[in-house]
Amino acid sequence: YRLDEEYTPDEEGSQMIRWFGSVPRAMLSLFQGLSGGVDWNDLVEPLMLRISPLVAFFFSMIQAFSILAVLNVVTATFVQQAIERSHQVKEMQQVS
């Protein structure tokens, strides 16, 4: 998909170009949405108005799933380290 140079977008179109104008820009927008750099509504609104509410719904579900998956992995890592450390402390207490 490529825009002609004569294309003059309306407000929703300019937001689409701003957030999803190229593949690198779309990847940056997704990262910003996941990391809290951009509000989800700023990313979803152009999709909903310009393409389809269904696309906006799937975008929101992907964002939510990604955040929950990352948080789950981070939490599991911390819990696993805490369990291992508690076993080490118990072993040290039994030795002394």
Residue share in β-strands:
under 5%
Report the structural category: mainly alpha
| Rg calc | 22 Å
**Overall mean pLDDT score?**
85
Number of DSSP strands?
Answer: 0
What percent of the residues sit in helical stretches (DSSP H or I)? over 70%
CA-to-CA gap between the ends?
A: 70 Å
Shape field: rod-shaped
Q: Element order, helices and strands?
A: HHHH
Number of helices: 4
Low-confidence runs of at least 5 consecutive residues: none
Structure explained in plain terms:
The chain is mostly helical. 80% of the residues lie in helices and 0% in strands. The chain contains 4 helices and no strands. Helix 1 crosses helix 3 (40-50) and helix 2 packs across helix 4.
Short structural description:
With 96 residues, the chain is mostly helical. It has helices spanning 11-20, 23-35, 40-50, 53-95.
Architecture blueprint of SSEs:
Blueprint: H1 11-20, H2 23-35, H3 40-50, H4 53-95
List the main descriptive attributes of the protein structure presented here.
0% strand, mainly alpha, 80% helix, 96 residues
